[in-house]
Amino acid sequence: MKIKQGDYVLLYLDKRRKYLVKVVPGKEFHTHKGILRLDDVEGKEYGDIVKTHLGVSFRILKPLLLDYVKKFKRGTQVIYPKDAALMIVMAGIGPGSRVVEAGTGTGVLTALLAHFVKPHGLVYSYDISKKNLENAKRNLKAVGLDRWVVLKLGDVTEEIEEKNVDAVFLDLPSPWLAVENSYRALRHGGIFVSFSPTINQVEKTVEALKSQDFIDYDAVEVILRRYKVERGSTRPETFMIGHTGYIVFARKP
Q1: Which residue range forms the structural domain that includes residue 87?
Q2: What are the residues whose beta carbons fall under 8 Å from the beta carbon of 34, sequence distance 6 or more?
Q3: What predicted TM-score, i.e. pTM, was given to this entire model?
Q4: How many CB atoms lie within 10 A of CB 57?
Q5: Among 36, 63, 90, which residue terminates a domain?
Q6: Same-domain status, 15 and 58
Q7: How many Å apart are CA 71 and CA 134, to the nearest integer?
Q8: Among 173, 131, 122, 128, which residue's Cα sits nearest to residue 150?
Q9: For the chain, which terminal residue's Cβ has fewer other Cβ atoms within 10 angstroms, N or C?
């Protein structure tokens, strides 16, 4: 597939230096390794090499969704891919799923959910901040996923309008306050998922789930450890992202 004007490409120098760039005629991309003319990218194919004026080679890659969401304009803390991946898989999200999410925040989890529910599903994403919703709308539109998301200004601890949804995802300071409304919104067999940074939040959420007759509840933490791989000296990397949060799952019988 040849790259054309308006396409986004990932310019890859090495593992730490990769840049998401839109191909605009006449524009230049400036790096510490030299200037790269975007006119030189147009007409090439993904996997090709393009060089800066200093002769440094960049590989042209097709961006993944994760490459896009990493560049979202952020106003709130986002859920890490390691956590989002488990949340989506454990909730059984797929094409055609109907999902309620709160709060929207920057829209990173919203975009990932939309990617998996399309082409026939929908994500109903609530936030109490109009500013967050406006930012998320721009981010979702930039990656072409806005048509699978309904952004809603509202508080799910007071009301969830949707019924018979497949899953409810909560990233809130007090998720236990939305457990009763989540139960009402879910179809039978639907999945409740919440993400919380502290264990006290987990305790209160699980207590609320028990009182509401949810079953099959579980609480987990995902730890991801990267390795520095070199022949004869492979070892874990010195620095890592440790605790990010706890995930609670439950099922409506």
Answers
A1: 68-251
A2: 52, 53, 54, 55, 56
A3: 0.91
A4: 11
A5: 63
A6: yes
A7: 16
A8: 122
A9: N
